Amino acid sequence: MLLCKTHKIIIFVIIVKIKKHIMRYLLYIILMCCLSLTTCSNKSENRTSKRIKAMSIVSLKDKSEAIKLAKQLERKGISDKLVLEAIASVPRHEFVDSNLREYAYHDRPLPIERNQTISQPYTVAYQSELLKLKHGEKVLEVGTGSGYQAAILCEMGAEVYSIERYEELHNSSKEKLNSLGYYPNLFYGDGYEGLPEYAPFDKILITAAPEKIPEKLLQQLKIGGWMVVPVGDRRVQKMTIIRRTGEDTFEESLHGDFIFVPMEKGTEK
Ligand code: SAH
Q1: 73 lines ligand 1 (CB under 6 A)
Q2: What digits encode the pLDDT tens for the residues 21-49?
């Protein structure tokens, strides 16, 4: 078939455009794959945080939902880039029941086993921001629950210790976190006791609500470190920061009202 010069030029331009389009699409896919393959791990035998390759977010749809959630939290006032990046990287849908999958990236708490909840993403981000984490800091989380908050702390480069009072939740969160490539140090026990054998901690994060500040945990803080804890009765709690300023001196500040599940004494099978 004979083509005139104009036709040839048009075909040439179309080919160039298609090539450009394909290249851009390929670059996008490569970029997304790189982003989703990077996550962090804290192995108990290796106390320093390190990043390993893991399947953190597998599909582009999940990745874009997590990015959208991070943007939404930024609009709501979260500004710590480390926190926002972690929210955009952790696949929250993996931590909720499959029949709640469609709500996984909504900014709301969701039920998990044993009548507990996975906290609202805003609350997770807010508490994480109050920690002002530096890379490699040693953090104790009380209330592993689904494991989502622990994954966020891992993504932020912390050396994570987390304790849960329900054995069932301890086991299921461990399995989930490990399957996603996160290896925080997880314990089944009563958070009121803390982990004296691993203390002192740079930061302590409590994700259930005690009526009073747990005294034993204050002793497990480094001097200069602090605890983020929602304190109050079952109706409402004040987000509180207790900073250890000396061997026996502490400073307290309040950071708004929240609602958490209660922090209960003892352990349950
Ligand atoms: N951080 C969790 C939130 C879970 S809700 C997440 O990201 O999913 C609070 C959790 O604290 C529950 O799992 C509850 O069982 C746990 N909890 C309550 N009291 C506790 C205690 N004394 N010690 C350890 N865990 C406790």
Answers
A1: no
A2: 556 655 545 544 444 444 334 333 333 33
Q: Are 190 and 267 in contact (CB under 8 A)?
A: yes
Say which residues have a Cβ less than 8 Å from residue 73's Cβ, sequence separation at least 6.
84, 87, 107, 121, 122, 125
Q: What atom of ligand 1 comes closest to residue 166's alpha carbon?
A: 15
Query: The pTM is what?
Result: 0.82
Residue 208 CA, ligand 1 centroid: distance in Å: 5
Catalytic residues: 119
CATH fold, domain 54-258, is Rossmann fold (3.40.50)
Per-residue b/e over 188-197, b at no fewer than 16 CB within 10 Å?
bbbbbbbbee
CA distance 71 to 94: 20
Provide the token pair at 101: 């999958």
Q: pLDDT tens-digit profile of 175-218?
A: 999 999 999 999 999 999 999 999 999 999 999 999 999 999 99
Ligand 1 close to Cβ of residue 165 (< 6 A): yes
